[in-house]
Amino acid sequence: MRLPLLAAVCCALLASAAVPHCAQAAKARHFKWEISNMFWSPDCEEKVVIGINGQFPGPTIRARAGDTIHVELKNALHTEGVVIHWHGIRQIGTPWADGTAAISQCAINPEETFTYRFVVDKPGTYFYHGHYGMQRAAGLYGSLIVDVAEGEEEPFKYDGELNLLLSDWYHESIHTQMVALSSKPFRWIGEPQSLLINGRGQFNCSMAAAHTPGATQCAAVNRQCAPVVLPVQPNKTYRLRVASTTSLASLNLAIGNHKMTVVEADGNYVDPFAVDDIDIYSGDSYSVLLTTDQDPSSNYWVSVGVRGRKPKTAPALAVLNYRPNRASKLPALAPPVTPAWDDYEHSKAFTFRIRARAGTPPPPATADRRIELLNTQNRMDGHTKWSINNVSMVLPATPYLGSLKLGLKSTLTAARPAETFSRGYDVRQPPANPNTTAGDNVYVLAHNTTVDVVLQNANALAHNVSEVHPWHLHGHDFWVLGYGEGAYRGDAADEARLNLRDPPLRNTVVIFPYGWTALRFVADNPGVWAFHCHIEPHLHMGMGVVFAEAVDRVGKVPKEAVSCGATASALMNGDHL
């Protein structure tokens, strides 16, 4: 059951009020975190990670729908700011808690403390991560699980639950990576050294070397990089929650000899369907049901491999441990083989099967506005950038939420961002004019209007290269209406590809190489919201836009959230938020 929007707003604004859905058993859950750099060995190679309270990954938050989360966060990083984005939480009534530096709040300075307060309004599988610079790639992330409200039930049954948070890991620091991506000439950061499952992986060796020609068997490893073990009982059904917070890699998950039934995507129920493996892009989350119906005398490999890029990173492995077998008993069968990295038909076959479960609210029949966003790779003053409609996004010193709320005239550039691209643009060739410019890419949306967004992929600067891009929208779920090949034309043929009957609700969606993806959402959540490629280096290089919605309707914004840049000066001069 989903929380109605009105009830969600009430919960967000009046967490203690007598709102039927959220007052029955809603709780305030308090956390006190300190974020700091620390030595850690995620893949058995000691490096510096960003941890929370001495943990990597960060602590798991568990709550029920309607609960209010309080996180008192101290920044103990010595030389840089920090924010936390609560990925998939819509922040209804609390846009200042979204945790996007320069958009919803100021970065929290070293030795400062900031308190996030927000309501988790609907159940699902979520996570949190840093959203300042490339701190997510440094390990600043953790799981956020929201169970159904007290007295309610999921629309599927299971006996137990397991949680997998997937990520990739670089041995180079994020500061070196950012310098490389911003350098002239451009220096690409390459592929990650390891894939991690719940923060653990093994570099330059394999737990399944007997089945991997040329691989070295991993010797005894320390606790920080020991393979993840998932204990299960035979003949039971488990809910496996899976989320990806990767910096670069698109992934594929499979479990030896076991099928999975997909039941949730990005905190929304889907029409159940069975698969042998799932593709999971950065920013995605799923729940799958797993039945332990195989030979109980064996354990089985859980394998996570790279998709969408020519893999130079070895798969990550975990062990599905059928009790009472020893956890150290290695599976006899070889790990599942990840589909070929460029088998996009396999990827599409999975993605196209994701449909909304019966009872999911349908999208509005028509839209008030359509925004078409062409994703291109470009050059600017000798630098390599990613651009949207030939503008590479640059974030301001003053958070948009504060500056727009105060009506500061210097907030936005005079030129408004383009809402379409030339129908003559050849998406299968490198850009004829590779040059781009920088801009704010802020689209101002009228309150309660229905907006269609078409994401158009294209060839990069090099010939015959078009990459996978997972796009994530803050502050909203959207309906994924459809996908297409080649250039979007908006004609009858493209319209015929759209699904208005049972499109899934998501907060992250993929655009395939040389293709387009269409989505629809209602601008019913006042605030300023990022919409961007969830690949960390792509966002760093400018691949994103901002949606500003009815900022005049936003309630009181805490001064500490936006007291920096021009907003700080305005507040000192007596202006009020």
UniProtKB/TrEMBL annotation:
InterPro entries: Cu-oxidase-like_N, Cu-oxidase_2nd, Cu-oxidase_C, Cu-oxidase_fam, Cu_oxidase_CS, Cu_oxidase_Cu_BS, Cupredoxin, CuRO_1_AAO. GO terms for molecular function: copper ion binding; L-ascorbate oxidase activity. It catalyses: 4 L-ascorbate + O2 = 4 monodehydro-L-ascorbate radical + 2 H2O. The keyword Disulfide bond applies. Its EC number is 1.10.3.3. CDD domains: CuRO_1_AAO (cd13845), CuRO_3_AAO (cd13893). One of its GO terms (biological process) is response to virus. One of its GO terms (cellular component) is extracellular region. Its main location: secreted. Its cofactor is Cu cation. Residues 37-147, 163-324, 429-550 form the Plastocyanin-like domain. Dimer. May be involved in a redox system involving ascorbic acid. This is L-ascorbate oxidase. It comes from Panicum miliaceum.
